[in-house]
């Protein structure tokens, strides 16, 4: 090796070592500036509320500003794509909900892989959904609803928060498992559907308990079953859909904090530690409970396994049910 080439190799090596050293130093000093949380949904939803709860407490814990940026659109795809394309340095993270795992089965081509392009930090919470009906319908149990639907094929309708939403999937899943013929009526969101559900324009829907609890208490909606694998603590005498005769049915929603793929392990560990501590605070748990949510606060590894499992579940269901977002 001649002298000039030797010097160039040495200079390159020194530069590489310096770069590695600076990266290590940056991780050691993390966080040294503001953190941004992308919420790929409109303000006011559970993902947004959870992100703001995390933001408020995390900022105090790390001594740096933590801002929330809503980037809604295309059922979350716009904001999630922005997260996937962000620098993997821990200064941009995101909060997603269950529709993140549903998107690959419905939106093709999706500009990102919902698992491979992200580094899970933690699952925030799980929210149980419930099956509610209009009071105009003379059915007070799941079986009575099924019997009525079978006696009136194609006459009953279930509402959803939009084509491809989890409430669309759960309504279609229920109808298929129960062997009944129902019409899907999509709305722009849960709130938009309530007047029609209460008046009997549509007859049934799956929604989060906080979204419908006031209407249940006022008698404007009837609660027939808890959608998830366990009964709702607020209504311990109301069975789950599975207990009522649809084995294996489990309708719930969840939240998760993600970072871009390639985020350094020490940064992921720090974020997990701090956000888990936030989620385990009594006041945060209490706030989540008012939304019908139960804090999870798990490890990055557990969050990834859950995400992979949910993507497979939804992909299999969409294929089996032949759900098309254009319908």
Automatic annotation (TrEMBL):
Record keywords: Receptor, Signal
Superkingdom classification of source: Bacteria
Signal peptide range: 1-26
InterPro entries the record matches: BUG, Bug_dom1
Classification via CDD domains: PBP2_Bug27
Keyword Signal in annotation: yes
SUPFAM superfamilies per the UniProt record, alphabetical: Periplasmic binding protein-like II
Gene3D superfamilies, per the entry: Bordetella uptake gene, domain 1, Periplasmic binding protein-like II
Entry similarity comment: Belongs to the UPF0065 (bug) family.
PANTHER family given in the database record: BLR1237 PROTEIN, TRICARBOXYLATE-BINDING PROTEIN
Protein name (record): Tripartite-type tricarboxylate transporter receptor subunit TctC
Protein's organism: Chelatococcus asaccharovorans
Taxonomic placement: Bacteria, Pseudomonadati, Pseudomonadota, Alphaproteobacteria, Hyphomicrobiales
